[in-house]
Amino acid sequence: MSTVIGIDLGTSTTEAAVLQDGKPVMLLNFDGKVETPSIVGLDGTGNIVVGEKAEGQILLAPEQTVKEVKRLMGTGEKVFLGKRACSPVEISSMILSYVRNFAGKYLGEDVERAVISVPAYFDEIQRQATVEAGRQAGFIVERILNEPTAAALSYGISHLEEESRILVYDLGGGTFDVTLLELFEGVLEVKASSGDNQLGGKDFDERLVNYLSERFAQKQGVSLEKDIYAMTRLHQAAAECKKALSTQEEYRVLLPMIAENEGIPVELDETVSREQLEELIMDLVERTHEPIDVVLDDSGMTAEELDMILLVGGSTRIPLVQADIESYLGKKPCFAVNPDYAVAQGAAIQASIISGLVDEEKGIMMTDVNPYTLGIRSLNGYMMDYMSVIIPRNVTIPVTKKQTYYTSWDGQTSADIEVYQGESRSVEENHRIGTFRMHGIPSAPAGKEQLEVAFSYNQNGMLNVTARVMSTGKEASITIDMMQTADGEARADVSGWKESVLAEDYRTVIRRAERWLKKHEGEAGTEEEYDALEELLYQLKLAIVEEEDGEAEELEEEIRELMEEYGNEK
After folding, report:
1. CA-closest candidate to residue 88, choices 52, 121, 118
2. Residues marked as catalytic
3. Selecting from 3.30.1540.10, 3.90.640.10, 3.40.50.2300, 3.30.70.100, what CATH number does the domain 201-282 have?
């Protein structure tokens, strides 16, 4: 079996590890270091650079450099490498490709398999995006592993005989997770997870940047906010200041010639105390309390029942963070694992289990939970957007759960199954992650026909949804995973449109549209037209698959009009 490595794809840095002689070993990158900055850039010749080389050019070419894309994973937002628009998945894949290359050199073999960690509070789309980034980098992603669970694995592998309840408090550069686990007789059982995907050390940096920027404007009468080069220097200095204040009481931020006032160079010179920093970030640190409360409540435990609070993530080095968690839970937290490397090491342990190097029967076993409630839109009285829960949050996975539903009106022969993720009773306030249509329901009075909807959720956090007509056994399903949906909502498979009875009627317009898309793929200035036509083409194929002739006719007309318009423009 080929080697499987563990990867911690972080907001600020990325690390990789492998199990050797029963212990996790951190892999060194091409700079001979364990930590690779999660930064991608274009150098002066237009080549992609990753890690320290990209970080080194931030001050000189910030517009050619991208960092902190982890927070954008699973969104449709674009970032720019110079004039090149990239998705967060593409940038992450460049980082992972770099990891794959240095891991291969370190191990002396082509590394194709990996376990990649994600924040426990990543939703379905964000997990799919991470898998797709790994696939684009040439990896077979064997498992998506929650970061706090990975950290607990790195602790548990050397404490197999221990019985304890562990709260993992994971505050990194861009995300916060809290997970409660039980370790007993070599079994690591996740009881509950929660978190905040928009909370981390970068938010602390931002508070300090704003403070320093305002102080500079007051003293010098000059604003730095619209100067990308000055703000890049200021962000770098703020990060250094924050780190220094974890070990010292004050720090001097000195940035010579950062701007000009009436043609005269001026400097930023400000001494920041630890107390000042704590005042700036106190409310952010206190935002960790609510997820902690959720985890304790969902697991049915109290703070007094915890045996250990395990600190993970670089931001837990901040003294205020440690003091706050001790004050809030009444128990002193500890660094029983390396806060920077524990996640990668835990991912390597999971990788070794997959590859057979660690025997689950004799070593450590692990269970995990789904962090979000999963369900579908249904009719509930007069409420048309009711979130009908099928899998509640923090249920142990893998799991399959089913619910039975009834037709809503006389003669109903089809039903749209809309899949949502979130905690609101209204689907409109939750996140739609997929939809498909169930055809072939026998025509009958309202409430006479039954549909069974089954959710199967696996350990990679991937979801399969199946709808079955109880009277006939007819089924339809969707697998919400990977590839085409990494930057958006999961979609039904339309690859079988040619087998539909309607296919021949629309084959010509589909071929014309596909030829246009192929011709103009990646062409500058056609991005908006390309996306619009691609979406219409997908909708037409979906209508063909679902044998919705009227809808297909309307879509065909829209495509023809767009093709004519684009043709005139070109």
Report:
1. 118
2. 8, 70, 147, 170
3. 3.90.640.10
